[in-house]
Amino acid sequence: MGFGLIVIGDEILSGRREDKHMRKAIELLNARGLALNWAEYIGDERDRITATLRRTFASSDIVFCTGGIGATPDDHTRQCAAAALGVELALHPDAREQIALRIAESAEGDPVKADLNRPENQHRFKMGEFPLGARIIPNSYNRIPGFSVADHHFMPGFPVMAWPMMEWVLDHYYAPLFHRDAEQARAFYVFEAPESTLTPLMEQVEAAYPGIRVFSLPSVGDVSRGDRFARRHIDLGVKGLAESVPAAYAMLFEGVRAMGFEIVEQ
After folding, report:
1. In this structure, how many other beta carbons lie within 10 angstroms of the beta carbon of residue 78?
2. Which pTM does this prediction carry?
């Protein structure tokens, strides 16, 4: 079981809007001792959304999906989720209640605007049509809920709505997973070292400490960080279970130092 993120919307792929959900998902997961394992971006294309959801529903992953759950012609996520599951869409009673409350609040006492039989208000209820068997996700911003099916959780594309909903899902459903396998990371900088020279040592560290992953993030130089970092360098380190990190880090650090490269600890 891993955590995944699907961001839906042509506006992301066209560059009209910049995705902020992945960074926030990483932040929310890391704060709970969890990690994001994968992310995908999809445009507003029904066949592709359906195929992606059919694949991810067949996995054991916990998936957050943002975007496309409204009721305009370019919103397809609700329909695609139902198609991927092979079930019908139906107005969820809890969603209907929340949408009706939102209509009443927006009417501000005007009985005409509050009339649930008005065509525009009847159209609003479409936002509460979810795949059969879905559960609602409360929306603290404007009451219009998202929905969950199994371990897939669907929410709007607006960060002000999606991020509190994502937190609610994590705290409501997955608290037993928090900080279960405490991970740690340690790293240092290596200057003017070819990655190819360091690779055998990296492989030896991973072989010596199962469950430890060695990471190497090379840079051609960053003058904004001063003269030292203007040179070619590598952010080199290990991550994994807390009890294994110190020894693995020591093996990596001492191995690089024995090669004679300049090192700066972080």
Report:
1. 23
2. 0.83
